[in-house]
Write a structure and sequence with these properties.
Two copies of one chain form a homodimer. The first copy, chain A, has ten helices and eleven strands. By secondary structure, chain A is an alpha/beta fold. In chain A, the strands form three sheets. In chain A, strands 1-11-8-7-5-6 form a six-stranded parallel β-sheet. Chains A and B meet through helix 5, helix 7 and strand 6 of A and helix 5, helix 7 and strand 6 of B.
């Protein structure tokens, strides 16, 4: 039987630790970390994520400041709001839920967030620090999804150094920072993507396979080495019939689970870890700015 | 016969282009790019590099401001100098020749350089921008050695997309930015290093092999696929006898040249490209700050 990496449980453990830490901060400083959550418009998936993030933040004692804006807001007004939040000492982390309406330039908006308040870890300064920093990740703002994947891997208590890790996908949000994190752990790291030739055979050699493609159940058993560890970043909604749908990952779980050493399920794998890591970043931002 | 990637010639071509561009800038703005070169102490290799960089900069019409400081300078005085240069409009690029004396924290010093004047492309903000930016590299400050390697590859006029690229080494100065640049070119990119298992067999599968290990003639023909492209970043001085020494790369050229499609020699390969790319960065810094 494979290890099923229970993201819900592991995220809860991290949230429990953060809760205790934040209670300690409150006693010591009479302050708690504050997270501003900005949602523009009413994309259904965004509303689900924002709700889940807000709920989790409150659970651990983070003060959430919600900004739900009209879809019609213009870019300058959005940036003005971010500037206010940049200058507000009660706000330690700022999260802009993506995607933004097409009339708004996401990169410009994300870059307007003060790097020290960049709860998602997407600002180029934080991206650069993650790449350069060799060892310590304690004070870094790290993109939540790949860091969540790393925490799942660490839960297995195996030595990651020298492992052959393959990351499928090269997005700024997952693939690239994932590769940096695995390199820091001294894995041999390969990034494969849409232009890769023989992608299956490269994946088949991976000791650790991270699937972040965004294609439902794309990775089947022919892609996976016996005894590998598979982390599934995908969250895809597929129709079962006219009325019902379900969430599946990028990995064909039912097939792959039989040959792996460990695998993360969807839902209940990477998803909860992403949220927990957002709370971690917010707490780190608080500690960095208050020099705790 | 393999293609020998003549770095001296290709660097000269880039310098000729920069010279013309800078002449144009001078006519248009009555200004030329300025590069401040800081050397601390008298490490022999550093003196050689500083001399070569200064000479090349002057050749293309860049104004060089030399700061040769005593080995005993303290970190604060060095940072004060950098701050002055940060605020000096005649200075577009600042280069701190490494290594610095052990009493000085290199990271702190490098991070004190204004990112827009960071001629070496080592500041985390520039590292992050390089990682995030998908296509255009025209306005980016990119670490000089890996960018020089990429320009050598481009000289072959082959389609890099889908090529299996292996980078040996994971330094901040070469290996990591090299991997980012090759990923941008849509290569499948693997980074191998001291902890990698079966490093030889991984390298043997590479269509493009970048050697940045710092071990003289370490990569022999058993590491290299027939028809591969090999870029040798190493510059190692080895003794021939009691009196004589010579420069060799990380690749055993005499053996490997017989099986490859193309290879860069040492000296005369990556080295001149590194210097030319420093001049490129300085010119880009000038154009960015003057909005040309």
């Amino acid at each position: 039987m494979p290890h099923i990496l229970d993201g819900k449980k592991i995220a809860q453990k991290l949230k429990d630790q953060l809760k205790i830490e934040i209670e300690g901060i409150k006693i010591k400083c009479n302050l708690v970390p504050g997270l501003a959550v900005i949602q523009v418009g009413n994309v259904a998936a965004s509303s689900v994520y924002v709700k889940a993030k807000t709920k989790a933040a409150k659970e651990v004692g983070i003060n959430v400041i919600d900004h739900h804006l009209e879809e019609s807001i213009n870019q300058n007004d959005l940036i003005n709001l971010i500037n206010q939040l940049n200058n507000n000492d009660d706000v330690n982390g700022i999260l802009v839920q993506l995607p933004l309406p097409k009339s708004i330039n996401e990169e410009v908006v994300l870059n307007s967030i003060e790097p020290k308040k960049d709860a998602d870890g997407f600002h180029p300064l934080n991206v650069g620090k993650l790449s350069i920093n060799q060892k310590n990740d304690e004070s870094l703002m790290i993109p939540c999804t790949p860091y969540g994947c790393l925490l799942l891997l660490r839960e297995l208590n195996i030595n990651l150094a020298g492992k052959n890790a393959v990351v499928i996908g090269r997005s700024n949000i997952v693939g690239k920072p994932m590769a940096q994190l695995l390199l820091k752990e001294s894995c041999t790291v390969t990034t494969v993507h849409s232009k890769t030739i023989n992608i299956e055979s490269i994946c088949k050699k991976a000791d650790i396979l991270i699937a972040a493609i965004g294609k439902p159940e794309f990775v089947n058993k022919d892609w996976v080495k016996k005894g590998a560890i598979v982390i599934d970043v995908g969250i895809n909604r597929i129709k079962i019939n006219e009325e019902k749908s379900k969430l599946v990952g990028d990995v064909l779980f039912s097939e792959v689970e039989n040959i792996v050493y460990a695998i993360s399920p969807v839902p209940g794998g990477v998803g909860p870890m992403t949220i927990a890591c957002l709370l971690r970043n917010t707490t780190i931002a608080f500690k960095n700015s208050n020099k705790i």
